[in-house]
Amino acid sequence: MIPKIKNKIFLAPMEEVNDIAFRLLCKKSGAGLTWTSLTSPLDPREQQLDDKPILQIFATSTEGIEKFMKKYDSKVSGWDFNLGCPAKTAKAQGYGAYLTDLKTVEKIVKLMRSCTHKPLSIKIRKSPLYYDFLKIAEKYCDWIAIHPRTRIQGYSGEPDLEWALKLKLESNIPVIYSGNVNEKNYTKFLDKFDYVMIGRSAIGHPEIFSSILGKKFSRNFKNYFNLAKKYKLPFRLIKFQAMQFTKGDRESRKLREKMFKIKSVEELENFI
Fold this sequence. Notes:
Elements: E1 9-11, H1 20-29, E2 54-57, H2 65-72, E3 78-83, H3 88-93, H4 102-114, E4 120-125, H5 130-140, E5 143-147, H6 161-170, E6 175-178, H7 186-190, E7 195-198, H8 208-213, H9 221-230, H10 235-245, H11 252-260, H12 265-271
Parallel strand pairs: 1-7, 2-3, 3-4, 4-5, 5-6, 6-7
Helix pairs in contact: 1-9, 4-5
């Protein structure tokens, strides 16, 4: 069952971007829910979940899922199984958009359902198997998240809104729409779908949620940096986020050129 949510605008799952510090800023800015990036149930690293996110996993079998979900179920708002990642690593390992064995998919989703009473979803792309995935979702899930691009398109080209609307009409569960959603067009998508996800428009701009909601929230990289230090995020990731936060600044190119030469957290802190 889907719990009460403060609004219908979510932070989409994004690799590299959705670390704990960034998710916390987006939640403070007003995101109704935050999604983690792809997470393997076999990853031994401790998950940082202070924002109570939807924890998104990828897998090619049921191995490790039950143990992983029992460990983290009390720390999340829900779970998501990714069937949409188009990355080369997903292709090489056969997960995400490259997991096409319907029996395996159903086995995994069925197990996930048995491990939690919290909201469960799958995230899919436009594919010939979309109807089969939808039927599996209707059987075990509370909602379904869709990205109307094919795995060949990746994140380029136009999302197929006609396909998305077709799936919405066929679905007996709520549909979360993801694909080029921003502060200018989100109402158009909310008129047609139950919820929306904001992805690339939020990169470097966690304040997009407060802007949509008409609230005040300052986009200040120091806020991210302090959280990143608190959670001991790696320098590589902090530097990546620092460069993203320059987007829209008048001197963004010069700032990124200077940041590129920075070699440590201490150096970056002095630069800030």
